[in-house]
Amino acid sequence: MHRLSDEYEDLRKTVEEFAREVVAPVIGDYYERGEFPYDIVRRMGAMGLFGLPIPEEHGGMGGDYFALCLALEELAKVDSSVAITLEAAVSLGAMPIYRFGTPEQRERWLPKLASGEMLGAFGLTEPGGGSDVPGGMRTTATLDGDEWVINGTKAFITNSGTDITGVVAVAAITGTTAEGEPEISTILVPAGTPGFTVSKKYSKVGWSASDTRELSFTDCRVPAENLLGERGRGYAQFLQTLDEGRVAIAALATGLAQGCVDESLRYVRERRAFGHPIGHYQAIQFKIADMEARAHTARLAYYHAAEKMLAGERFKKEAAIAKLVSSNAAMDNAREATQIFGGYGFMNEFPVGRFYRDAKILEIGEGTSEVQRMLIARELGLAAL
């Protein structure tokens, strides 16, 4: 897979052109205003990007998860807000319904999610939780006749409050297991359901053109058939979803890291100091060489994880490695690109200013760097020592 097939390469070039010609000229203004880019999202939907890994019978493109990753990398070379909107809509919004949904749930939700006409979200994280999902979960869902009654709060939920958000998959405690542990299940809550309240957008350091909100549920009632998959399997669903999502986030982080290289190469050929373009100086050359090496390594890591995933092999360790390596690369490259640009790197009108603000969350979201190290160590058998 390290050499892209013609089909993958055609997709990559198509998204590269879209990112450069459609996204790049306007996204800075959306970012500065903190405004969700509905027109860009609509055009991405028309291209079929939201349906890349979803089968044609459900309204998708019939591709695979690696195709999604290639699209994410190309978008993130230009802007991460647009890339995370796509990533969350597919890997967290649509894929759980495709993986675990009933035929009726798939028929109801997937065609609109795959077309980008509707966005989905995954309500997992809570204000008092974080990496300790089962220990920090307080949201409950109680079966009352033929309805679930949901109460609780979710935090940092992407795509949850846009005008086109249609459904949120909510993880909630639905009982207690035989071992005395919380029984966690996932329940689909349509937007606009009474008792489901969406807060105003967070004021974020980065990803300013994406939608992230806190959600609250107060005696929110949905039909019993809105249970996603088996009762009590919500935590297992979440773990599978995150394993796949980490590969996608790694692709996004790789794109940001490569975008820093690309912007820096353009700049050092134009910016002159002491009689030469600054790219003439070895100090700058070495910075960019290290940046390219990081991006290249990150790409190989997520390609390898995606290859194992598509082959049906266990890929938890490889996904964690890809997420760890790529997020480090994004953060390091954003810092170095800002340094290369000097004072201009601190100006929001230059893409590297956005890249620097966007990079840090990649070491936190969908599993912190510390969690990735825990997963790698566990896969190496160290947790049992």
Concise synopsis of the structure shown:
51% of the residues are buried.
What strand order characterises the main sheet?
1-4-5-8
Poorly predicted regions: none
Computed over alpha carbons, the radius of gyration is: 21 Å
Output the CATH class name of the largest domain. Answer: Mainly Alpha
Shape: globular
Count the helices. How many? Answer: 12
Q: Give a quick account of the main beta sheet: strands, pairing sense, barrel closure.
A: 4 strands, mixed
Fraction of residues in H or I helices = 40-55%
Q: The CATH topology of the largest domain is what?
A: Butyryl-CoA Dehydrogenase, subunit A, domain 3
**How widely separated are the two ends?**
35 Å
- Provide the β-strand percentage band: 15-25%
Q: Give the mean pLDDT.
A: 95
- CATH superfamily placement of the largest domain: Butyryl-CoA Dehydrogenase, subunit A, domain 3
CATH architecture of the largest domain: Up-down Bundle
Q: Given the helix and strand composition, which structural class is it?
A: alpha+beta
Total domains = 3
Order of helices and strands: HHHHHHEHEEEEEEEHEEHHHH
Number of strands: 10
Domain Acyl-CoA oxidase/dehydrogenase middle: 121-220
Keywords: FAD, Flavoprotein, Oxidoreductase
InterPro entries: Acyl-CoA_DH_CS, Acyl-CoA_Oxase/DH_mid-dom, Acyl-CoA_Oxase/DH_mid-dom_sf, AcylCo_DH-like_C, AcylCo_DH/oxidase_C, AcylCoA_DH/ox_N, AcylCoA_DH/ox_N_sf, AcylCoA_DH/oxidase_NM_dom_sf
Domain Acyl-CoA dehydrogenase/oxidase C-terminal: 232-380
